[in-house]
Amino acid sequence: MNVKLLCALFWFPFAAAAQGFAGLGTSVEDFAVPTPGKVFDFPTDDGPHPDYRIEWWYLTANLRADDETDYGLQWTLFRTALSPDKGEGWDSPQLWMGHAAVTTPDAHFVTERLARGGIGQAGVITDPFAAWIDDWAFEGPDADARLRATGPDFAYDMALSATGPRVFHGDAGYSVKSAQGQASYYFSQPFFDVTGTLKLPDGEVAVTGSAWLDREWSSQPLAADQTGWDWFSLSFDDGAKLMGFQLRGAQTYTQATLIMPDGETTAFPNGAFNAEPLDVTAAAGRQVPTTWQVTLPDIDLDATVTAINPQSWMDTSVPYWEGPVRITGSHTGRGYLEMTGYD
Amino acid sequence: MSLTILLALFGHWRRNPLQLFTLLAGLALATALWSGVQAINAEARASYDAASATLGDAQFDRLVRRDGQPIEQDTYIDLRRAGWLVSPVIEGRMNGARLVGLDPLTAPAGITPIAPENGQDLQDFMAGGGQIIAAPDVQIADAMTDPNIAPGTAFADIGLVQTLLDRRGELDALIILPDQSIIQTPVTQIAPQLSVQVAQDGSDIGRLTDSFHLNLTAFGLLSFAVGIFIVHGAIGLAFEQRRGTVRTLRALGAPLRLLMALIGIELLVLAIIAGAIGVGLGYVIAGLLLPDVAATLRGLYGADVTGTLQLRPIWWVSGMAIAVGGTAMAGAQALWSLSRTSLLSGAHARAQSVMTGRGAWVSVIVGVALLMIACILAFVADGVVSGFALLGALLVGAALLLPFVLRVLLQLAEGRAKGVVAAWFWADTRQQLPGLSLALMALLLAMAANVGVSTMVSSFRLTFVEFLDQRLASELYVTTDTAAQAGLFEAYATPKADAVLPIVSTDVTIQGRATELFGARDHATYRDNWGFLAAADDAWDAVHEGRAILINEQLARGADIGIGDSVQVGANAYDVAGIYGDYGNPIGQAIMGEVSFATQFPDANALRFGVRIAPDQVGDLRQALEAELAIRPDAMINQAAIKAYSLAIFDRTFTVTNALNILTLAVASFAILMSLLTLTSMRVPQLAPVWAMGLTRGALGRLELVRTVMLAILTGLLALPLGLALAWVLLAVVNVAAFGWRLPMYVFPWDYAALGGFAVLAAMGAALWPAVRLARTLPADLLKVFANER
After folding, report:
1. Which residues of chain B have pLDDT under 50?
2. Residue A72 has what pLDDT?
3. Is residue A260 predicted with pLDDT exceeding 90?
4. End-to-end CA distance of chain B
5. CA-based Rg of chain A, rounded to a whole angstrom?
6. Rounded alpha-carbon distances, angstroms, from residue B602 to B68, B519, B589, B599
7. Which residue pairs, CB below 8 angstroms and at least 24 apart, start in B754-760?
8. C-beta of residue A296 within 8 angstroms of C-beta of residue A244
């Protein structure tokens, strides 16, 4: 579950569709809607679900160079459908948006790509798996995947290898987003080992680390009063992982999933997971919380999450904050933080 | 007290309404000339910006196929997947409009009418049936109109345009975005059939229209200079005329500071009134000339300007700025001299006030320095900007030197003068020179500009006519609709005519420049009529043997190609055997032998033909073609008609230039009038002794007229070489930099004589009234000089 849902819904074209504009003659009802009890089917569910309005392949990685410098990496492919119709070629209603970023302790490189579906410029296929937009690609089986992106001032090329199973959030992959019942299908592959090269203005850097892939699709907007989102993917040094998010609205709505090293999961209901801002940073003219106190009493978690680079602002057509974090306190480790709605 | 002083100052105007009129008219004319030119510039630029903002192709490098064929859509995908940030474009015509298809997601910011950030617009543009967004003048049903789109243009999503044009899977060009990723596979590895077409330079229409605007800007600067001279003259006049009033007020106890402040306020009010009138007049001038500017830009460069005027705040600002600023400049000098005038010296005439002594020498030194800079620039200037710097240095330097040169000439004349009246005449003229010098400088600039620009235009026209004769050698031009009709036509017309010459062309890229490549048949018509700027021996033989091509001057200069150089065209390399003049064409052109052309570009069919036939048989052949082959009458054009049309376009091009020329000259004459009026009122004390010694008032008046005409003639004679130098700079420096071709310079003595005559007449007209006034000065007034003043 990511903030892009919110951003995308309120900023990108499908935001208009979400509000039922007549131009398309469609409304949210014409798209498929997630329901509990879905049986996931692979590799089919690695691929796109064009009946649903929005979907993403969202990969973040915590990396480290030989000199112990921390780096963050992001590779994201969003799909959005202007309508549930099945157009061919340029008439395809499917649009694609790619975001790629590299974060260093003192710099944040980010770039964006947009593409039409139906003409081959971007898309996702399974067996063998490949997700691409322009020359950016995430391809190959989980055990031996490759990840590439280029921008005007950076590039990267990574080899990925999954060392654990996929994990499913919420109710076996049915992830509720609000008290009113809005939901998405949501699973992750948080066990990627990564090795590769970052190409930065100061030269090439060899890095290793771990990556976390989120897969999520839905059609429903968030509840109207939900204005922002804080999402955490935390990898503790003891091998356990935690996904937690809070949707800020009239009432804050939280969800969390504890992932054991063997892939076993525990889902926590609304209210169990809690995140309080400790410090804010001025980033791109906004006041963004970049230090958090994160608690989950059920697992005795009481940790401070600090941005490695507080200026990790994503200056894309859908702007948000996304960057690597450091965990200290009851648990230690590394992770990724994503925040939106701080306009 | 302030009010009383103001009323006294104003009383002067009430008693002399004519003086008030000349002051206001001078200021208003200067403002009008300046703001009129600025208005035309601003309007044309605004229209052009709208056009270029939506002409993605003009501002960005593009990838096109070397053979001019459409690009396969798969090639676009291959390039994107290789890391190239390119965006597809397809173009066609629909209901007479240019219909451009773009992909708003990948197009560079600013060239599509909608941006990805505007979600709803983007969705309407792409989704469902798609939305056409068109300029207001385009007639397409259901199109949304947008005034920011260039006239005659419509935009739609690329998918929709492919469907409308029935060209699915085809693209015409790929815009290369300026910011590319750091890693890419070379284009030659992915799509060797594509080549980069460089934006700007010779192929960029924007730069051509820029040169036209530069032309207008030069006129704007000239009008600014003339305007400043006039404002200066008008203010000087106002001060000199009111010396008496000021002295009286001061004698009555008005403090100098207060007086100066009030005069300053009065000048400001007058400047604002005159400025407002001037801006209004400028609006009228611009409104009258703009349709011709629009026609010029359209005819010469194909750029659309709406031709209607909108009131823009910038004119008011710039118009008021010159009125108030010019007044402040001139007023400050006058106030300064007023503050240094002793109360007792009072109303003494100060005919020898300005530009004497050290000030004159500073002008000479600056003038010489500017002319030296101009000489250096003449050798090194290679761009439009340095060309205009050369123009500026030349004109201003010459203007500054004018009083000195005239003084030397008058001294020479004085030395040779016989008789006391002649000696007095020359000495008096020399003594008056400083007061007239500003007006004479304005006249010099106006005349030089006139000579220079008319030389350029006439040279251009002469060259153009010769060029048309060589280029339009065939008596009849026929355009067929289809390849089949073309075949029928060739079979039908060949036995009836002396020769049928197919005109076949395709768009290629030569050394990165968009070029129209023609295939020429081996026929004496070309060999006899085609003139070269430079050519190898047996150029046509080399062309028809498939070894060489001919290129136009624009391509040669733009890509720096010379005779004997080898260039790649399509799949083969060719030597350049000849370079020919190609006036008025913004892009590169090349000619290849018909045989090699057909081998390289088999898909390009000749649909147009030139027919060589006796002129008296043209009519019969037209009728036969219409009756037998159903060729439409409007598809057959007589050579004479094309020539007339081309010349009509050409003549409209310079209407604006001519109009501004005449206007500038007229305004310069007005400056002379005002300077003379100033001097006349001041000179009574100097003329009184001469009158007392026996010269009649009539004789004095006549001498006054002769003096002005003589000064105008001298200035005119000096303007001639300056104007010719100006013409040379325009033809050999500015033109080459702006258009890519150099024009031969021709000299037109009769035109110059006529201009000189006109200038003399204008000067005479300006001098007549002051002379008559002088001749009618009451003897009593002359006597007062001896009675009252001393």
Report:
1. 54-57, 200-208, 300-301, 346-356, 790
2. 97
3. yes
4. 30
5. 19
6. 12, 11, 19, 6
7. B755/B447, B755/B450, B755/B451, B755/B454, B755/B716, B756/B447, B756/B713, B756/B716, B756/B717, B756/B720, B758/B665, B759/B443, B759/B447, B759/B665, B759/B669, B759/B712, B759/B715, B759/B716, B759/B719, B760/B709, B760/B712, B760/B713, B760/B716
8. yes
d(CA B345, CA B342): 5
Say if the Cβ atoms of B81 and A132 lie within 8 Å. Answer: yes
The secondary structure of B618-634 as a DSSP string is: HHHHHHHHHHHH---GG
Give whole-number Cα distances, B66 to A150, B47, B91, B201, B600, in Å.
29, 33, 17, 19, 11
Model pLDDT, residue B358: 59
Full DSSP string of A23-67: GGS--GGGS----TT----TTGGGS--TTSSEEEEEEEEEEEETT
Residue from B25, B89, B24 nearest B63 by CA: B89
- Chain B residues at the A interface, defined by Cβ less than 8 Å, are 73-74, 77, 80-83, 85, 103, 105-106, 116-117, 119-120, 122-124, 126-128, 157-160, 162, 168, 179-184
Integer Cα distance of A243 and A234 in angstroms:
6
Q: How far is A242 from chain B (nearest CA, A)?
A: 34
Residue with tokens 């002129």: B615
The confidence score (pLDDT) of residue A295 equals 96
What phi and psi, each to the nearest 5 degrees, are found at residue A115?
-155, 155
Q: Is B181 in Cβ contact with A135 (below 8 Å)?
A: yes
Cα distance between residue B226 and residue B222, in whole Å: 6
> Of all residues in chain A, what percent are helix, strand and coil, respectively (each to 5)?
10, 55, 35
Q: Which helix (H) or strand (E) segment is B685 a member of?
A: helix B655-692
Instruction: Using an 8 Å CB-CB cutoff, list chain A residues near B156.
Output: none
Instruction: Decide if B48 contacts B305 (C-beta within 8 A).
Output: yes
The DSSP bridge partners found for residue A235 are: A241, A334
Task: Identify the band that residue A240 occupies on the pLDDT scale cut at 50, 70 and 90.
Answer: very high
Res B107: pLDDT: 87
What is the distance between the alpha carbons of residues B504 and B491, in angstroms, rounded to a whole number? 17
Task: Report the percentage of chain A scoring pLDDT > 90.
Answer: 71
On whether the CB atoms of residues B565 and B540 are closer than 8 A, the answer is: no
Q: Which residues of B touch A318 (CB under 8 A)?
A: none
pLDDT of residue A7: 36
Q: Which fold has domain A4-20+40-340?
A: AttH-like fold (2.40.370)
- Is B402 within 8 Å of B229 (Cβ atoms)? no
The pLDDT score that the predictor gives to residue B83 is 92
CB contact under 8 A, B168 and A89: yes
Q: In A, which residues are within 8 Å of B82 by CB distance?
A: 135
Cβ of A95 within 8 Å of Cβ of B105? The answer is: yes
C-alpha–C-alpha distance, residues A305 and A296, integer Å: 13
**pLDDT tens-digit readout, A262-320:** 999 999 999 999 999 999 999 888 899 999 999 999 999 999 999 999 999 998 877 88
Measured CA to CA, the distance from residue A116 to residue A204 in angstroms comes to: 32
Chain B residues lying within 8 Å of A154, measured CB to CB: 182
Is B80 close to A135, i.e. CB distance below 8 A? Answer: yes
Are the Cβ atoms of B127 and A114 closer than 8 angstroms? no
For residue A12, which residues of chain B lie inside 8 Å, CB to CB?
A: 119
DSSP state string for B111-145: SSSS-TT-HHHHHHHHSTT---EE-TT---TTPEE
Hey, where are the domains in chain A?
4-20+40-340
SS (HEC) of A287-322: EEEEEEEEEEHHHCEEEEEEECCCCCEECCCCCEEE
ipTM computed for the complex: 0.91
Cβ count near B180 (within 10 Å): 15
